[in-house]
Amino acid sequence: MKWSFSFVIPSLFSLLLLTSCGAINLYEKNTAIPNYAWKAGFEAKGSFDITDTIHPNKIYVVLRHTDAYRYNNIWLNVGIQKPGDSMRFQKVDIPLGSDATGWYGTGMNDIWEIRYELNAVAYPFIHKGLYQFSIQQIMRDDPLLQVMSVGMRIERLN
Questions:
Q1: Structure confidence at residue 19 (pLDDT)
Q2: Which architecture characterizes domain 23-157 according to CATH?
Q3: Which of 35, 37, 55, 59 measures 20 to 30 Å from 68, CA to CA?
Q4: How sure is the predictor about 26, in pLDDT bands with cuts at 50, 70 and 90?
Q5: What is the pLDDT of residues 107-116, one digit of tens each?
Q6: Chain centroid to CA 157: how far?
Q7: Alpha-carbon distance 117 to 35, whole Å?
Q8: 21 in helix, strand or coil?
């Protein structure tokens, strides 16, 4: 079968359009939890630099746990600090699974990862500069067992 330019050029153009739309991974940092035992005082910290104040962004908490984790959710205290400001915290209840359907997210063998979207509406960061983040567990268990890592992911939408 011969390929004609009238088929190939529009196909390549369509493919280019499809791949150029969507999210761009701007930043992701995950912190390993020592011995899978997350102590209440242990903070996952990081920083990311924002240079684009035009495009909207999605902010995710990324959490990895084992199949032996005892609960269907996790409570976190998530803080974000914009340049020149103080850290602002919000308490977040992240559903990890249900008794009826099992674990949410993606899994392989006994390891599960979930990306939980913190902002329901994508928005641009309004200040350029270095942002800081902090994530702590605020469950009753201390240490909280079978949590492998936690972190933050920023995606820029085009």
A1: 41
A2: Sandwich (2.60)
A3: 59
A4: confident
A5: 999 999 999 9
A6: 14
A7: 26
A8: coil
User: Cα angle at 75 between 90 and 44, to 5 degrees?
Assistant: 70
30, HSE (Cβ side, Cα atoms, 13 Å): 16
Q: Cα separation of 67 and 99, whole Å?
A: 13
Is residue 18 within a helix (H) or strand (E), and if so which, with residue range? helix 5-20
Interval 139-157: pLDDT, tens: 999 999 999 999 999 999 8
Amino acid letter at 33?
A: I
Q: How far apart are CA 66 and CA 145, in angstroms?
A: 9
Would you give the distance in Å from CA 87 to the centre of its chain?
A: 19
Q: Which residues contact 77 (CB under 8 A, 6 or more apart)?
A: 89, 90, 91, 92, 134, 135, 136, 137, 138
Residue 117 has pLDDT above 50, yes or no: yes
Report helix, strand or coil for 121.
coil
- Whether 76 and 135 have beta carbons less than 8 Å apart is answered as yes
Nearest in space to 149 (alpha carbons), one of 48, 58, 76: 76
What are the residue boundaries of the structural domains of the chain, listed by start? 23-157
Q: Which two tokens stand for residue 49?
A: 């630099």
Residue with tokens 């902002």: 119
